[in-house]
């Protein structure tokens, strides 16, 4: 079944942990009128006997089975039960994609996020929501900044303790945690504490963790604006320095859902900063040397982007099976034959290519490439104030040539 399937239509009813008593009239009427109700076992068990429809529990895994399941009940009045707001980390958007939004009617219910904000007195629009279900909890490290209000949806009862450890490890042990469990039920309860001395036992699996983020004194706060200090990365000197990195990222211009290839990734600083700009982006770091490839993974985890894919290998061969990028940074391997042909061919139309050279040989390649493909050549010279005898003088770094071009 897909969006062209005729006749398929479905009503999704959001239901809270308080079940039938918490449902409004439209939700109840839909359920009473339904011929088949699809939903999780826990949700189906909340329905009273007056709902006489056939009850079909979701199979596992659900999403691949969804088209056949809907097809099997085509022509009947189908109701899908969803937990809380069906459009908030829920089944509603999957159904809309599958049968078309005009064939999905949604009967909304407050989400666990709205309930949590109501209990905490937090404005929903100020809150950053993250799901750690099926995702690495280390991604939370990117969001850590004093004053941030975080709500984390976790996979199980161990999430609060793992989150408390992660916060403490990142220098945010002073953060206040509140576990809000079984929201909207008569079992509802909360556990409060700070991350660095979190003692609570694993509790109710049905919960949301609220975090008022606070830094432990001495913690260096890292922005998501590119140009992190060089020592924010573990590196062996093969690093695109702060000013050059910031300029490279401005030319690479990450936007929603964009994929970057960082070719000759060194310690991964360019790819890491790319990913920190927006959680929807993705990146592949290609690095020839094994110990550096390992360092890239460490930097990615420490800086909250563990989803950075690291490929150890030599460009251009290592690029062969990668998905087409929206942007490419070439920081190493410029003089290897075929690298620019490979990245130019793979780059999507409108994609950005940025390359840095610090050697004359690399510079010659960039000049040739710019003659062939256009774009801008820029020479960057950075000087830093440093001790000179008893005084202070300018210490120049190696000049660098940057080539930046957009594929037509
Ligand atoms: C100057 S460093 C890049 C620095 C990097 N942008 C950063 O900030 O960490 C160049 C890197 O390219 C790698 N390299 C050189 N030729 C390569 C090739 N053909 N394929 C993959 N990596 C290569 C080197 O091992 C080195 O780590």
Automatic annotation (TrEMBL):
<dbReference type="GO" id="GO:0032259">
    <property type="term" value="P:methylation"/>
</dbReference>
<dbReference type="InterPro" id="IPR050714">
    <property type="entry name" value="Cobalamin_biosynth_MTase"/>
</dbReference>
<comment type="pathway">
    <text>Cofactor biosynthesis; adenosylcobalamin biosynthesis.</text>
</comment>
<dbReference type="InterPro" id="IPR006365">
    <property type="entry name" value="Cbl_synth_CobL"/>
</dbReference>
<keyword id="KW-0489">Methyltransferase</keyword>
<dbReference type="GO" id="GO:0008276">
    <property type="term" value="F:protein methyltransferase activity"/>
</dbReference>
<keyword id="KW-0169">Cobalamin biosynthesis</keyword>
<dbReference type="InterPro" id="IPR000878">
    <property type="entry name" value="4pyrrol_Mease"/>
</dbReference>
<dbReference type="InterPro" id="IPR035996">
    <property type="entry name" value="4pyrrol_Methylase_sf"/>
</dbReference>
<dbReference type="InterPro" id="IPR012818">
    <property type="entry name" value="CbiE"/>
</dbReference>
<keyword id="KW-0949">S-adenosyl-L-methionine</keyword>
<dbReference type="InterPro" id="IPR014008">
    <property type="entry name" value="Cbl_synth_MTase_CbiT"/>
</dbReference>
<protein>
    <submittedName>
        <fullName>Precorrin-6Y methyltransferase</fullName>
    </submittedName>
</protein>
<dbReference type="Pfam" id="PF00590">
    <property type="entry name" value="TP_methylase"/>
</dbReference>
<keyword id="KW-0808">Transferase</keyword>
<dbReference type="InterPro" id="IPR014777">
    <property type="entry name" value="4pyrrole_Mease_sub1"/>
</dbReference>
<dbReference type="InterPro" id="IPR029063">
    <property type="entry name" value="SAM-dependent_MTases_sf"/>
</dbReference>
<feature type="domain" description="Tetrapyrrole methylase">
    <location>
        <begin position="10"/>
        <end position="194"/>
    </location>
</feature>
<dbReference type="GO" id="GO:0009236">
    <property type="term" value="P:cobalamin biosynthetic process"/>
</dbReference>
